[in-house]
Amino acid sequence: DQLASQIAAGEVVERPASVVKELLENALDAGADRLDIHVEEGGIRRIAVHDNGHGIPKDELPLAVCRHATSKIVTAEDLHRIHTLGFRGEALASISAVSRFELASRTAEEATGWRIASDGATHWTEPAPVAIPVGTRIEVKDLFFNVPARRKFLKAPRTEFGHIDELVRRMALAWPSVQFTLQHNGKTVHQLRPVQDEAGQLRRLEMLLGKGFVEAALAVEFESGPLRLRGWMARPTFNRAQADMQYFYVNGRMVRDKLLVHAVRQAYADTLYHGRQPAYVLFLELPPEQVDVNVHPAKSEVRFAEARWVYDFVRRSLKDAIATPIE
Ligand code: ADP
Ligand code: MG
Asked: What mean pLDDT comes out for the span 137-154?
């Protein structure tokens, strides 16, 4: 069973950044608007995430780290209408199977928090009281300490941290009203205040993507029936230093989808911007039953019920945005 857990963990946990992704998604699902992320040695040595979400009641702590235990799916119907980011009930079970793991949490109804811990999920401690504010604190140490074959494939801390940093950028772009702090080896890398308005949005965009992007940004805002596309794309005057500035979100989830990438490219090709590498931050929203996010556990691919309809909408909207005269 221990071996089965470790194999299953391979699906969810590829590297430290995948741990951070799962922990942040859980925190956001719990309604947190404050996320503190501390990592050491690229997350290989330690990852700690504190959130101010609704927390987990003491008697549900053991369940939270059990495989296929999720509090988020109530009926089979829900599987097709997923609003929360997580839904498989695998992440904490998988992560704890391959690390020294500690979960501490406190709900608003409790006078104290409670913590459980394990090394490799073979044996869990009994819940013990711990003084923490309402919310959840998860600590993941020595990732893959018990799976040397996997640990060997981790890259240098600097590289692993690069993946974490990129992940936090992606999340911070999509969740403007959430405060993010990221520290690496005790040094603050990002300190992003929650955003209230358009000006704040642009400030966060500037902090994450640079002044050049913001100065070159065209606002995108289109609606057609239940489809909505909003965000920013850079004018061709923008000469970016960063190689990859292509952020596309579907219902709040960052995706890398061939269909969408192609639609953006074609919108550029349809206009004078032909030949330029697009740079953009775009959010597509559509009814959840129109999109399947259940394609792969890493969840960066999606499948649309009516792909042509979505493709045409994205391509046409961006073409119009580009064609809008620049004042
Ligand atoms: P999933 O997110 O797919 O439900 P996870 O293994 O990621 O599965 O989490 C298991 C359960 O633990 C969640 O359904 C949720 O009830 C609880 N949980 C995990 N992280 C948090 C958190 N940060 N705040 C509140 N509840 C959490
Ligand atoms: Mg989850």
From this structure: 96
